[in-house]
Amino acid sequence: MIPLCLYLPYFLLSSLIIHVVTVGCIAEYNSVNSALDEISAFMDELEERSDLLFAKVQQQLEDSRLARLQQEADKESAEEQSLNSQKTAPSSH
């Protein structure tokens, strides 16, 4: 039978190693958790900026579409006025 005095140092050393590893894992976990929180905050900000940019692009597209429609309507109106003025103008024969 092996005496207890030979097991005790092994047990104490094992307990110390387990404690150091556990403390190291907790520190590493906290570090990773902190980094993930920073990434999450960055991603939230990025998503907010993306949403704002998307809204601005949508507004620009709508403004452009309305301006194009207005230009087309103005052109058609000018063409109609030109045709009407040609019809009502006296002939110079």
Oligomer: single chain
Q: Rg, please?
A: 40 Å
Strand content: under 5%
Count of DSSP E strands? 0
Question: How would you portray this structure in words?
Answer:
The chain is mostly helical and 93 residues long. It is 91% helix and 0% strand. It has 1 helix and no strands. It has one helix spanning 4-88. The longest helix has 85 residues, at 4-88. The model has no long low-confidence stretch (mean pLDDT 82).
Summarize the structure.
The protein is mostly helical and 93 residues long. It has one helix at residues 4-88.
Q: How is the secondary structure organized here?
A:
Layout: H1 4-88
Could you list some keywords that capture this structure?
1 helix; mainly alpha; 93 residues
